[in-house]
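Section 5: illustrative case.
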């Protein structure tokens, strides 16, 4: 029993001293902005070219500036942990002067 206790205490002491000297934790944070410019067309089961909706001219989407954030945690046990967030939200309102199909619905 004493021998087991000596082994446990020795292992505990080595662990504490080993961890305290090499257990560096780092933290890095970054915040920024970037420019999003949606462009192109969208369609769902298009029958003809008129069923394609242009994001800028038909739907009225415009360029947006969006915030982004990143958090990096440096822990030797779990390397390369990044937490990132980039919210994307686009609002637009437009109209198309001809009838078109989007899936099974005609507008």
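Designed sequence:
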């Amino acid at each position: 029993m004493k021998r087991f206790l000596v082994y446990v205490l020795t292992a505990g002491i080595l662990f504490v001293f080993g961890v305290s000297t090499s257990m560096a934790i780092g933290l890095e944070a970054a915040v920024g902005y970037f420019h999003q410019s949606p462009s192109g067309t969208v369609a769902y089961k298009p029958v003809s070219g008129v069923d394609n909706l242009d994001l800028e001219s038909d739907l009225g989407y415009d360029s947006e500036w969006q915030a982004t954030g990143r958090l990096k945690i440096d822990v030797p046990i779990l390397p390369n942990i990044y937490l990132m967030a980039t919210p994307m939200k686009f609002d637009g309102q437009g109209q198309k002067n001809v009838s078109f199909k989007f899936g099974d619905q005609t507008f």
